[in-house]
Every structure is written in structure tokens, then in C-alpha cells.
Amino acid sequence: MAKNLIIVESPSKAKTIKKYLGSNYTVKSSVGHIIDLPKSTLGVDLENDFKPKYITVRGKSKILKEIKDAAKGASKILLATDLDREGEAIAWHLSNALGLKEDALSRIVFNEITESAIKAAVKSPRKIDQSLVDAQQARRVLDRIVGYKLSPLLWKKIKKGLSAGRVQSVTVQLIIDREKEIESFIEEEYWDIEGKFCKQDKKCLTSQLFKYQGNKLKLIEGKTTQEHIDQIKKNEAIVSSIKVKDKKNNPKPPFITSTLQQKAANVLNYTSKRTMQIAQELYEGIDLGKGNGGLVGLITYMRTDSTRISPTAKEETKDFIKSVYGEEYIPAKTRLYKISNKAQDAHEAIRPTSINRTPKDLKPLLTKDQFKLYKLIWERFLASEMPSAIYDQMTVEIKVGEYLFKTIGSKLKFKGYLIVGTDKEEGDNLLPEIKEGESLSIESILGNQHFTQPPQRYTEATLIKKLESLGIGRPSTYSSIMDTIIKRGYVAREKKILYSTELGRLVLELLNGYFQNVINVKFTSKLEHELDLVADGKREWKKIIRDFYGPFESILEKAEVEIAKIVLEKPLDEVTDIICEKCGRNMVIKNGRFGKFLACPGFPECRNTKVLVEKIGVPCPNCDGEVVVKRTKSGRVFYGCSNYPECNTSFWSKPIDEKCPECGDILLDKGKIIACSSCKYKREKIEQGEE
Q: Per CATH, the architecture of 189-250+389-451 is what?
């Protein structure tokens, strides 16, 4: 008897699905893309309206033959690849390879790998969604054109083996821009005033100065602050206002791809790549043993930007909350979370396939990493279906002459979702019993000095959040973006912090010189929106490529001519007077992942390399050495003394051979300004050629 054939992407998913469908079904895996653009050539026919030239992926011929053989005797063929654009494209390629009819009802999708979801999907096959396929084709072709056309320019100008990417280059630019903001940042002083006021029974409260003469008071130096403090002390303190109200603290929505990656980075210290690998394992199926159902998919599909939850899951969770925590922990109204207008609401948020599988029960059956991520997802989802935490909040205003102080006290009244333990409870800040019009003694009035802080460097978590807010990339791309820019050496990661490397800056400097209209945030975000319209069937995908390629080709031709001239006029590798001690040749300066280094031009016969000491013509301010360019292990540039470790003088910004006119210390080049390394002196930088 002929069997039904189901084709999925991964072998582990195939095992889980096979368990639910029984002996009438054969389940095969394509192991990802089985047909794609070739790696060795552009693979896009520019003369024939950008027609992609698809081939069988190298090493996949045997897998494709096995699938074709299984399809020959099958009574029905169902394509169960992932339910995103990439999965739709894989299903389309398989459909073409197997010769299925264009209108065949061969595509099935499911948001979770559970028995009910799989059996429901098998009963409701649909046609392949050509709009989703076209959106994937458009992205693939755009990225291929940009990558394959720009990379040779980088080889000519910088070094061989480099590559450029449409989205990755914009991401690196964001990191570079943040670095420049930090380099040019000058801290500014500011002050606040804090008062301690006491009742007759010696019970006290601390309060911040809120307003002076009805307006906010900006204090920028200590002398003025002290004058205000002296004036405050001359007056009587009276409680002018007391307001008491309930304050609600709402739970966060269930995870989507970006928020899961951010939370896992912050709490578990996972990279986005690691997070997605573990989530994939939880989604495709974990062997819980025969007594627990064998292979079971524990979470819903992990590539999503929707916070929607199915009614069935909501009902099951409601019953769980009632039985474990009680009726009071069921919200009065069903929680609905706002879905971004950029979201593809095709499937649900990331949640456990069953809330009844608690992390505690599954802990012995999961790896350490699987348990940690599952616990994060389970707790976040459960909390999202619970009521708000409620605090008793008291706001007290104290009038001292023309000065108004304000303080807020609170006490947790009802735990709500906090009972799950996903977020820390705010500590009770209890104020003494107090009445309006009550007179208080002034125990102390203190001025506190502060300094403004530069913007923080990106971590993977904050960078993903930034990309998402700008509309750049999609849930399926964030992990690969992070992985690619670090692997290419354009970005370095030190203790979760992302820094641009010298190589990254060189590459972006070249790209910005010619392709600023293409490699920028606004254009990339607009292109993402266009791809979404293709996925919705509102745009024709090749028109997007045509509109892009016309201007891009013109810029490309100009850049190729100009860069060819530069290369002819000046050799790529600068020859030095340093002799290679192994073969006698003059060593040359090359650009590597972590900046410049000396190498023998006789490679591969001679592989001698040396560290290049880059002098900047500035003496060390603390010894007889000189300041040279140095790099951290991950490639981040800094400036340090040549006499290290005897002298550990170092700077993140480039020193200049000039002393500060106010304190005599060394001055630093911070991009747009020159600033002192010690005091507050700064001035605008005058570029060469300016009057």
C-alpha cells in the first residue's frame, strides 16, 4: 500500500513528526535548503530580468535522490518545511524538483510540533504561497547582487577574502557611529539637592528638590548649589501635599524572537546564535522518555515577531493558574498585547506547547542550556497571562519657602504576575505616617555632584533592539547578522560589549565613499518594508530589484574605475625598509582582521610575519617612551606607551603632540573636538585646509 510522504527541513523534526503519524506516513528531511544559488558565481541573470540560476546545493544530490525515490510511490506528498518565508521557498523548490502541479494542495504548516497540531495540519493542506516565496527570492537576489558586486572592490582596495553585505554593513555602521559618539563625548557637571526632613517623633524621610519658584531648577556647579542650600536652610518645612493611589506594574508580553535573544543575552549571557540553536532543539523535539511521551516539541516556532497567543493555549494556562495559584491570579480581562505594525502575524509568540510541562518537571530530562532557556520562555509566558502587580503608592510634597521637595513611597499590595519570579519585586519604600500641613524639622540639606555619561556601547541584545526599532532585518536574520559581522572581523566582542575593529572601519569608509545611498539605515529599512509588501502580495518582486539595480550599477561602475586608478597609482601593500630575517626580502604592510601587520612578500614560500609598531609622533607624558598604536585581543584599537609594562600609560582616544593650555596634560583627538585627558578643556577640531 502506497504511503503518504511528508518532507521537513531537519532530521530531528522528522523523528518527532513520524511518531505522531504512524506507519501510513514516510517522513523525509531536506536538511535545510536543497536548491539554491551557486556559491561560485553570481547566480543571477542580470540580462534576463534578474532570473535566479538555481542549482542543487553541493552535497545534497543524494538527499534529493532519496526524496524523489520516496515520492515516486507516494499516494500524497506534503511539504512541511518551516512556516516563514525561508521555509516557504524551500517547499517551493522541492515542489518544482518533484514536478508537483502549481496549484497542488501540498503545503502544510504548524506553529508547534504536537500531535494535535500535526494532525490538524495534515488535514488542511494549502497551495504554496507564491508571495512569501517571491519575498524570499527578492531578499536572496538583492543580497547576492550587493555581496558579489561589492566584495571585489574590497579585495582591490583593502585585502582579499573580504565581503560586504546589505544588512550587515548597516549594522557595522551603527556600531561605528556609536563609537564615534563615545569618542567625541565630553562629560558635563550637574548637581541635585537632597533633603532629610523629620517629624517630632524623630521619624524621617529623604526627599529630592523638585522645583524652585514653580519651575525645574538646573544646577551646573557647586557654588550656585551651595547658595541654594544656604537659602533653603533659612526656611520652615511644611508638608504641602499628600497623594495616595494604587500603582499597577504590568507583565511583559510573551517572547518574540528579538526579545528572547535580548533576554537570553542579558540573563543567561547567551549569544543570539546560541539562543536560536537551543530554541531550535526545544521546538523540533526533545526525547523525554517513553513514560513522558518520547520525542516532544516543547516550544512553539521560535522565529516570530507576533505576540499573539492561541485561544486553546490561553484556556489551558488559565486552568493551570487557577489550580496552582488560585482564582485571584486570573486577570479580570483576557490579556491582549499590542502587535507591531511591522510584525508578520502568521503565527504565535514563543510559548511552551503545554504550560503543564513545568521547568521543574523537565529539569532532569533537559541539558543545562535547554533547561535555562525553557525556564525563561515558560516563566515569561505564564507571567504574561497573569494580573498586574499592585502597589500602594504615596507621593509627598514638602514646601520649604520657594523650594518644593518631592518623595514617593510604595508598598506591594498584591503580587500578581510577580509570583512567577520573572521580574524582581520593587523593594518597599515605606514613608512615616504624615499629614498635610504638618511642620517638619530640617535634619540636613545636601548637594550631590554628578557628571553626564556617554551613550553605552552596544551589546548583542541592545543592537538587536536597535535594529528592530529601525525596521532592519527580520526575526530569522538577527542571529546570522551578529554571527557574520564578528566572524568577518568587522566587529569585536569583549565581555558582551561590541566594538568596531580597524578593519570594520576601513571597509565602511570605502563603502560610504561610494555607496552611501545604498548602505544606510533609511534605505535598508525602506527595502525591508518593500519586501514585506511583496510577502503580502502588494508588490512585484522583480520591480524592487529593477528599481534598486539601476542606480546601484551606475555607482558601481564609477567606483570600479576610481578604485582601479588608486590601485595602479599606489600598490596595495606598502613596502618597508624592514628586512625579513628568514629570506632577506623587504617586508610589506598588510591589513589583517586586527589591523596592520608586517608580512614577508615571499608568501607562501616564506610565511614570516611581525607585529607592526605604529608610531603617531607623540611622546609619552609619563616617561621617555613614545605613544604607539596597540590592539586588544579582539582587535580594538587603543594607544599606549612603548615602554609597557614598565609604563602602563594608555588612552582610548588618539593623543596629539600638544599640551592642554589649562592644566598642561596631554590632549586627545576625539573626532569633532580636541579635549584634555584630565581637565574639562575642549575646543572644536580645525580640519586641514580650514582657516
A: Distorted Sandwich (2.70)
Length of the chain: 691
Grid cell listed for 13: 523534526
Q: Within the chain, which residue ranges are assigned CATH 1.10.460.10? A: 138-184+457-568
Question: Does 301 participate in catalysis according to the annotation?
Answer: yes
pLDDT, position 506: 86
Q: Which of 301, 329, 458, 478 is the catalytic position?
A: 301
Handedness of CA 668, 496, 468, 84 (dihedral sign): positive
Q: Whole-model pTM?
A: 0.82
Question: What CATH architecture applies to the domain 138-184+457-568?
Answer: Orthogonal Bundle (1.10)
Residue 660 DSSP label:
-
pLDDT in tens, 215-225: 999 999 999 99
Residue 640 and residue 391: Cα distance in Å, rounded? 53
Contact 401, 202 (CB under 8 A): no
CB 401 within 8 A of CB 309: no
CA distances, 278 to each of 166, 272, 369 (Å): 27, 10, 7
Q: How far apart are CA 536 and CA 529, in angstroms?
A: 11
DSSP string, 583-625: T-PEEEEEEETTEEEEE-TTTTT---EEE--EEEEEE-TTSSS
CA separation for the pair 381, 304 (Å, rounded):
15
CATH of 4-128, one of 3.40.50.140, 1.20.1560.10, 3.40.50.300, 3.40.30.10: 3.40.50.140
- Residues with Cβ within 8 Å of residue 312, at least 6 apart in sequence: none
Write the DSSP string, 224-265. Answer: HHHHHHHHHTTS-EEEEEEEEEEEEEPPPPPB-HHHHHHHII
Peptide bond into 38 cis (omega under 30): no
Residues of the chain with CATH 2.70.20.10: 189-250+389-451
**Parts of the chain belonging to CATH 3.40.50.140:** 4-128
pLDDT of residue 691: 38
Task: Identify whether the C-beta of residue 488 lies closer than 8 Å to the C-beta of residue 175.
Answer: no
Report the candidate in 385, 417, 389, 419 with the shortest Cα–Cα distance to residue 307: 385
- As a whole number of Å, the end-to-end CA separation of the chain is 89
Which residues of the chain, if any, have pLDDT below 70?
A: 1-2, 340-346, 565-573, 591-595, 633-635, 686-691
The fold of the 257-384 domain, in CATH, is Topoisomerase I; domain 4 (1.10.290)
How many Cα atoms within 13 Å fall on the side-chain side of residue 30? 29
Task: For 494-547, give the DSSP string.
Answer: ETTEEEE-HHHHHHHHHHHHHHTTTSSHHHHHHHHHHHHHHHTTSS-HHHHHHH
